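Key result, reporting period 2: structure in, sequence out.
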């Protein structure tokens, strides 16, 4: 018994006709009737407002039905060193990487393709970067996120661009974007500002076997970031270790007394140890300084006693010197008064003034001369 299979393809649609699972042809808008037993015919419909054509037989159709494909579709194909940006109604819709193919329906939406040769570089220009990375269209940002690598290099930093694991370029501050479909792209940020590195709690023995705990602070700055990261896997870790080595050499060759008398000697030795070595690889060590020298508890007590004894001896010397000066001054005064009666009389008046300061009432009998003579007799 024969059956009629009726199919309707609307004006905004296209169809693919299959018979017993085999592709027969494309169907444009219209009504189609086919005679077949047990529904041998089938039609797959596609809405033309959805421009991208995704089908398991796409590659077969391009090869077997090239004429119809060119009539109905925009065929976007890329070479092995090419990237294509597909825009639908002037909005970025997809990015095709090297050696890819994609079909888009003609007729309802406007499809435009921009091609980029990767041999000319993988960096996006400012216009395209602004459009794909800095734009406000969420759909465009989604498309770009899958095909574009973007990184902002802040002010005071540089970016080290790695392409397929190899250092390719040093980037200045700003926004940078690259095609990320054919190569693995990454950017490492390096801070060019002056920074501090703390080396804390280093336990070191002096030449006379005294255990000290020392804290050191170093300030450094990258002057050639590319050279620094090429020379060492981790430049800061290497700097930390070299400070340790320099500190041990500076402390281990000196006795405790020498260290306490000239702490800056440690700074000079470490700076000399670091300077040339790191300057050659693009890392400038600006300054190195010892923050703290922490002594063991028993050593603190002994040094405290030493300092106390030294200060007591100094105080005794000062006291003796002042006593000697006072005695010498008295002797000089007596010599002057012995040969000068006026000076003697002035001294007597000075003494009288001091005595009367503590006297409430004073009765003078026999005149001032009598008072002074009586005072002299009292002193004798």
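The corresponding designed sequence is given below.
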């Amino acid at each position: 018994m024969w059956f009629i299979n009726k199919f309707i393809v609307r004006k905004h649609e296209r169809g693919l006709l299959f018979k017993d699972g085999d592709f027969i042809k494309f169907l444009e808008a219209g009504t189609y009737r086919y005679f077949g037993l047990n529904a041998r015919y089938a039609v797959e419909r596609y809405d033309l407002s959805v421009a991208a054509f995704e089908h398991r037989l796409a590659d077969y159709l391009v090869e077997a039905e090239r004429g119809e494909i060119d009539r109905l579709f925009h065929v976007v194909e890329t070479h092995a060193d090419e990237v294509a940006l597909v825009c639908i109604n002037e909005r970025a819709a997809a990015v095709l990487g090297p050696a890819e193919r994609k079909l888009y329906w003609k007729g309802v939406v406007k499809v435009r393709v921009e091609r980029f040769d990767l041999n000319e570089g993988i960096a996006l220009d400012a216009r395209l970067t602004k459009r794909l990375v800095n734009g406000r269209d969420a759909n465009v940002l989604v498309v770009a996120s899958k095909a574009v690598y973007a990184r902002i290099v802040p002010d005071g930093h540089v970016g080290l661009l790695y392409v397929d694991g190899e250092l390719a370029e040093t980037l200045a501050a700003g926004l940078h974007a690259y095609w990320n479909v054919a190569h693995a792209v990454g950017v490492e940020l390096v801070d060019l500002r002056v920074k501090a590195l703390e080396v804390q709690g280093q336990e070191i023995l002096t030449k006379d076997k005294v255990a000290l705990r020392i804290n050191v602070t170093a300030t450094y700055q990258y002057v050639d970031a590319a050279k620094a990261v090429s020379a060492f896997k981790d430049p800061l870790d290497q700097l930390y270790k070299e400070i340790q080595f320099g500190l041990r050499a500076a402390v281990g060759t000196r006795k405790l007394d020498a260290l306490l008398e000239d702490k800056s000697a440690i700074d000079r030795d470490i700076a000399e140890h670091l300077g040339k070595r790191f300057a050659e690889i693009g890392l400038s060590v600006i300054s190195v300084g010892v923050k703290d020298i922490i002594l063991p508890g028993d050593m603190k007590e002994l040094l405290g006693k030493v300092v106390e004894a030294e200060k007591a001896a100094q105080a005794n010397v000062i006291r003796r010197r002042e006593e000697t000066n006072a005695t010498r001054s008295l002797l000089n005064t007596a010599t002057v008064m012995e040969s000068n009666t006026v000076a003697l009389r002035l001294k007597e008046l000075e003494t009288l003034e001091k005595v009367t300061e503590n006297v409430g009432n004073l009765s003078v009998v026999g005149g001032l001369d009598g008072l002074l003579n009586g005072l002299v007799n009292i002193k004798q």
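The two ends are 165 Å apart (CA to CA). Residues 195-295 form a domain with the Tetrahydropterin Synthase; Chain A fold (CATH 3.30.479.30). This case is discussed further under Risks and Mitigation.
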